[in-house]
Amino acid sequence: MIEVTELRKHYGDVQAVDGVSFEIRAGEAFGLLGPNGAGKTTTIHITVGALAPDSGEVRIDGKPDPTRAETRAGVGVAPQDLAIYPVLTAEENLAFFAKLYGITGSRLKERVDWGLEFSGLTDRRKSRSVEFSGGMKRRLNLACAAVHEPRVLFCDEPTVGVDPQSRAHIFDRIEQLKAGGCTLIYTTHYMEEAQRLCDRVAIMDHGRILACDTVDALIAHHGGDSIVEAELLAVPSNRDTLGGEIDGDRLRVQTDKPFDAIAELGRSGVEVGELRVDRPDLERVFLALTGRSLRD
Amino acid sequence: MGTLLTLAKKDLTLLFRDKFALFWIFAFPLIYAVFFGSLFGGDDGGVRAKMRIAVVDDDRSEESRALLSRLAAHESVAIETTGEGDDAEPRAHEIDAARRAVRLGKKVAYLRIPKDYFESPFAMFGGGGGDRDRPELEVGIDPSRKAEAGFLQGVLMETVFRGMGDLFTDKEKMKAEIDRARAEIASGDGLNTVQKAVLQTFMGALSTFFDSVDLEVLESGPASGFGGGAGGGRQLKVVEVARDRSNRPKTAFDITFPSAIVWGLMGVATGFGVTLVRERAQGTLLRLRAAPIGRAQLLAGKALGCFVMCMIVMLFLLGFATVALGVRVDDILLLLVAMVSTGACFTGVMMLVSVMGKTEEAVAGASWGVMMPFAMIGGGMIPLVAMPSWLLTVSNVSPFKWGIYAVEGAVWRGFSFTDMLLPCGILIAIGAVLFWIGVAIFRRIDG
Ligand SMILES: Nc1ncnc2c1ncn2[C@@H]1O[C@H](COP(=O)(O)OP(=O)(O)O)[C@@H](O)[C@H]1O
Ligand SMILES: [Mg+2]
């Protein structure tokens, strides 16, 4: 549905996007995961046609040039920098954006009500958004992006800087949209979000995509083994037979089959206090790919 | 079109919620206009001043001179004899000069006493003889000056017939009639406050007039002798002298309000100009660029909003001046032409202003900084009518001058449609050029 080929964009000396290509299928949730400054936002802006790339091509539904009006009509964007008018009320913001997409009359009212419900702002509909908390603004920002029922929705860090409650709310609503068949492009530097929501994830750093696959495949390829860590209440004499390495009273076993390792531990008869299994995750994938942590 | 309206409406809503901008757009110009207007005498140039009348005495008789000296003594008129009054023979150019003076608005009217007027046996008796060849007093006045014409009519009749002894006019009845009219005006709900005020003033003047002069002399009331009606009124002939308008401001507000308009428009241009960078900074511009609207539409929406706001400001200020301060507009249609052109010009100014900086502060600063000098030399500070001629020449480079000039042209300068073409053409040309430059720069920034 969306094909992006070899996008490049620079600002002065900074190569913000450096040859990015990916493909998104209809109905899937696609994650762009990377630290701040990786080039996610720039990539999104180019893909929705709000920014011209230095080179590269974006095709939506097989058609080049995302700036064409009929292409745009089916696309929604919730920018990272809040794109709502502070002095307009929640209702006015929603109505304004809906009207830009040609929605009028009773359908306008219907969509505005939908947006208020979606953002949980129905009882604040007449309040100006300047009075809202960060979380409420984010929710409204997202509702304004989806008010025209786009087939594709770009969410650029929709949960950044919001309270846990709003975060849960936003997450719920995005999952709802996904369940409704909306294609999602989701950027974040929170790997749990990408892991939970996205069918496929592209790992991005320094303007490049380092890997792109399903979460499971990424972890399988780049995440490495699980680590089983056990607190030994008594250090056994036959410590070599346990496998792994012992550091004081801690036993650490690196394995791709953590349950087998635990079973083995049980069979060996050593007394174990605390037991921890550290499964590989996208954080580890990122670490493996870049040598750096996602949380800079 | 729907999108344009949506965009324009949004911008107008934003502006109307910006108290700071509103102050500069509405409050400041209004205060400016009212304050300086009152300072420089407000409405004293109006009907209260003496009526300036040119007289041409072709008769040059004892009687005619006596009539003129009575007229000169009247508190409400100032007369001026054109030409060399003491010559034995009248000169043809005198009447031409008088007519021209009326046409140019230098005089409200002219009075011509024809040769041998006082020779006529019926002159002193208000006609009645049906003698059609008898010379008549000639009054030349602009037909649109109805109030002045009415007033002058009374003055002339009174003066002409003074000393004729008591005739049969019922002064008390006349006064009662006027009082009844005043009461009717006061309670009349078909009239707005301004109309009421004007009529009350006029009736008040009439009433004073009847009080202060011996109206008993009027043979048949002031109305019947005027305009060459049948029977009683052959001695006075009204000649319509279509005026070139007065070409002079009637009140100080005629000057301060057009100037105030440009200050208001400056506020609009700045207020709208900053919205573009504000939208860029707050991220909504990017959001709009991702919506199915082209850049042209986006800018057209801004322009439309700005233009509408310009019109609102002009309507507000001129409306206030008209309703509350008695400023009279010569020609509403031409005013509309002037307003549209001025609005278009300042929309262009706004477009250029909006790309003069990267932050709101920079744009606002640059906007005031660039426009202020133009406003000052263009009539925002020193009224055009008070400018020395060199400054008037310099002011030609300022769009403010042409805006003020066009509005004044329709309000009191008495512009014809052709006169209006020059300032309006210049305004639209300036607007178009600035708009084009602004758009070009915007496209460069926008990438
Ligand atoms: N408008 C801009 N002007 C200059 N540099 C920019 C601009 N936008 C982004 N950059 C730079 O481009 C790089 C990528 O930024 P961005 O796409 O915002 O990353 P992300 O969204 O992943 O945090 C960063 O180094 C950033 O500083
Ligand atoms: Mg970003």
Based on CA atoms alone, the radius of gyration of chain A comes out at 23 Å
Total strands of chain A: the figure is 14
Task: Please write the CATH class name of the largest domain in chain A.
Answer: Alpha Beta
Strand composition percent of chain B: 5-15%
Unreliable parts of chain A? none
Brief overview:
Chain A has about 300 residues and is α/β, with parallel strands linked by helices. Chain A is about 35% helix and about 30% strand. In chain A, the strands form 3 sheets. Chain A has a 6-stranded mixed β-sheet with strand order 6-7-8-3-9-10, sandwiched between helices.
Explain what this protein looks like in three dimensions:
The complex is a heterodimer of chains A (296) and B (447). Chain A has 296 residues and is α/β, with parallel strands linked by helices. Chain A folds into two domains: 219 residues, 3-Layer(aba) Sandwich (Rossmann fold); 55 residues, no CATH class. In chain A, 35% of the residues lie in helices and 29% in strands. Chain A has ten helices and 14 strands. Chain B has three domains: 231 residues, no CATH class; 117 residues, abc type-2 transporter like fold; 45 residues. Chain B has a five-stranded mixed β-sheet with strand order 2-1-3-4-5, with helices on both faces. In chain B, strand 1, helix 3 and strand 2 form a beta-alpha-beta unit. In chain B, helix 2 runs antiparallel to helix 9 and helix 5 runs parallel beside helix 7. About 10% of the residues of chain B have low confidence. The interface between A and B is medium-sized, with 30 and 22 residues. The site of magnesium ion has 5 residues of chain A, from helix 1.
